[in-house]
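Check the record.
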Amino acid sequence: MKNVTDSFLSLGHWPSAGSFGFNTDIFATNPINLSVVLGVLIFFGKGVLSDLLDNRKQRILNTIRNSEELRGGVVEQLEKARARLRKIETEAEQFRVNGYSEIEREKLNLIDSTYKTLEQLEIYKNETIRFEQQRALNQVRQQVFQQALQRALGTLNSCLNNELHLRTISANIGMLGTMKEITD
């Protein structure tokens, strides 16, 4: 393994016939490698992220539409309640002598219950919207993190040779052992 590494390193010391050669200066090549990796991530990840956000946007819009339909049904119930209220008012006029106070109580109870129902549905709609937005954000964050992790692992696996790979694994195992000792 050392001979293979030495042969690649010796390529960097060959006299160049033109401007071609291997740059073995790690500090000069890391910014270039990082910029290439970031460029690839941005180029390929932009479409995926855009699609995910569009799908979540459609789900949220559908939830809002459903909430608006529910609200429309409540408004319809409110109109029915108002029609019933008008009917009760006409009957109240007829029976004013016998039970004016009882009819007024019925009217107030009906209005109060309708407004409470409207308030509860409005609260439910707002909570549903907040929940869907939070869930969408969490899902997008998780998917972006998973994709970035997969691409980073793929890049690392393609760039590491066996010796460097084994040293990295050994160092990580050592750090995990140290962290376990600290937590114990």
